[in-house]
Design brief:
single chain; 6-stranded mixed β-sheet; Conserved Hypothetical Protein Mth637, Chain: A; alpha+beta; 6 strands
Length: 96
Amino acid sequence: MSKLQYKETKDSLIIFAKIVPGSSKTSIEGLLDGMLKVKVAAQPEKGKANKELISFLAKKLGVKKRDISVISGHTNPLKQLEIKMADKTILEKLGV
């Protein structure tokens, strides 16, 4: 069983994610090669899928939307997400 890949920095946590836009609903689908696999209901146009992803994860993790940002992969399904002021204990809330 693979584990979620992440990096801890001084004041944030960086997770790796594979996004599947245009799905029927937004949900966490488990892990794929150590990445968090998330289906997103929004289409991949004008940043809609990224906004939906951030809103969904913020609610799931109990953090503010402004504390989550896409730091790489803005137009790619493979993304790096930074969660500010978080440590690895927050990952338990993802249920993977």
